[in-house]
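FYI - complex with calcium ion, inputs then prediction.
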Amino acid sequence: MKKHIQRACEAGLKSLAVAGIAVILPAGSAVAGKVTDDDIINDASTPGDVVSYGLGPQGQRYSSLKTINAGNVSKLVPAFSYSFGGEKQRGQEAQPLVHDGKIFVTASYSRIYAIDSKTGEEIWQYDHRLPEGILPCCDVVNRGAALYDDLVIFGTLDAQIVALNQDTGEVVWKEKIDNFKDGYSFTAAPLIVKGKVITGVSGGEFGVIGRVEARDALTGKLVWIRPTVEGHMGTLNGKDNGISGTTNATWPGDLWKTGGAATWAGGTYDPEVDLIFYGTGNPAPWNSHLRPGDNLYSTSTVAIDPDTGKIKWHYQFTPNDAWDYDGVNETVAFNAGGKKLAGHADRNGFFYVLDRTNGKLENAFPFVNQIDWAKGIDLKTGRPIETGVRPGDPSTSTDGKKGEQIFVAPSFLGGKNWMPMAYSQDTGLFYVPANEWGMDLWNEPVTYKKGAAYLGAGFTIKPLNKDYIGALRAFDPKTGKKVWEYKNPAPLWGGVLATAGNLVFTGTPEGYLKAFDAKTGKELWKFQTGSGVVGNPITWMEDGEQYIAVPSGWGGAVPLWGGDVASAVKYLNQGGSLWVFKLGS
Ligand code: CA
Ligand code: CA
């Protein structure tokens, strides 16, 4: 094992030299040994490894590597494929990590693997023992792990967080986030900030209380909790640390006690402003007539002080959400025009550019073709200009059981769902995996019951166009101009990667990993992986060779909740594997 690590260390250093990138290696860090805070902050500029979700905590998903480029990507061939095994497969939505000659990748049903990054041989596998009765709303997915020190840390469907030794896969610590029987689960990749592991919760469809938590990454000991529903008390080192917002200011009665705003898609961190950006889901229940008010901090980005767990600013995308437009989508730091900005492509169909120092809205524009619920975003107030397309109130309907049904786009699966976009530092463009679909939607009466679905709504998702649903689109965040688009028959559900090789990679449910010209959108390469690609591609350099890796395995929310769209893509087969590519000779 020692020899193996030594080899990986040399390989990593060499690959940095080959990439021609000047890297100042902080003591005891860089491409070998224990993963430090500096390694994570500098992840984007050290292409010899990938030690964070998002290829850097800012979440740009941009690599400076260009050994593989638009001129030679057609020669990309498989280096190896690794099977996750098991008779139960389902959606593979993970982003792999690479460090010290090992690939760490999570899979459906709360499994994680360490694989030799050169040969594809398994080093260890850990299957988390899941109890009966877990309540994941939207498939049994896992989106990735975090690395810190000699640990690899991931969350589980029964709402636990587990830290394993990177070399052996042995459990070092394990903590319970919350009670899975109450609807809590965990599917996102944890985020590491200043020695703390930052996590959220899934379960907005069960009336859980969304929150962001920080633990000591080495021990699992809780440091702070910040609830994302107004009225709930936060804590710091076991002591009360102020409630979030002002009780009942934006929530009526007792509804805030089961208010949702689940933090299910993970967060980003920008060291320049020293803030954690976390997205929050829908307010619960879906029936908005029961909760007049803005329902803070649902469908928002909250900017949290990593040291205290206090909310420094928030921006709400969909006040009094009536359409399940979770605002969990990633908030990605970028600098332009001398400003510290952040990009966010929301489930509600609008792309937002925020000043990330204070949350002020700088720009907003549609990134899908049809948005029925709002005409636009008022740049002065930062609020949506609503059209009034909301489902009717069931309590005033003739039978008191079903309110007026509406058709609205986007559907609740969103103009964009969880799958992260990429930002290229070369082109200055955001590459957004979008979907064009709408839904029939109506409201019903509902009362809260612990561990039961808490919606008060019915729905059927429908495509808007005959020939495509998915669309990968390149946007200029300054002008809102769509520079190019690639249309895909099935809905896009995988993450995006941009590289300095003038390339953009993403997967399709039809089974392909595809590469596009970053400037023109021309499709340059594709490879059929055998099942739908709904995971996140990464790239790194090792022994002078640039690699691309992506998980394959169709699943996620579309087959479960996609209505007419789910029927149309029923033929797609499940799978579970990791594919790794390099240039052929
Ligand atoms: Ca790196
Ligand atoms: Ca939701």
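The pocket of calcium ion (ligand 1) is lined by residues 43, 46, 49-51 (CB under 6 Å). The domain at 31-62+73-583 is CATH 2.140.10.10 (Methanol Dehydrogenase; Chain A).
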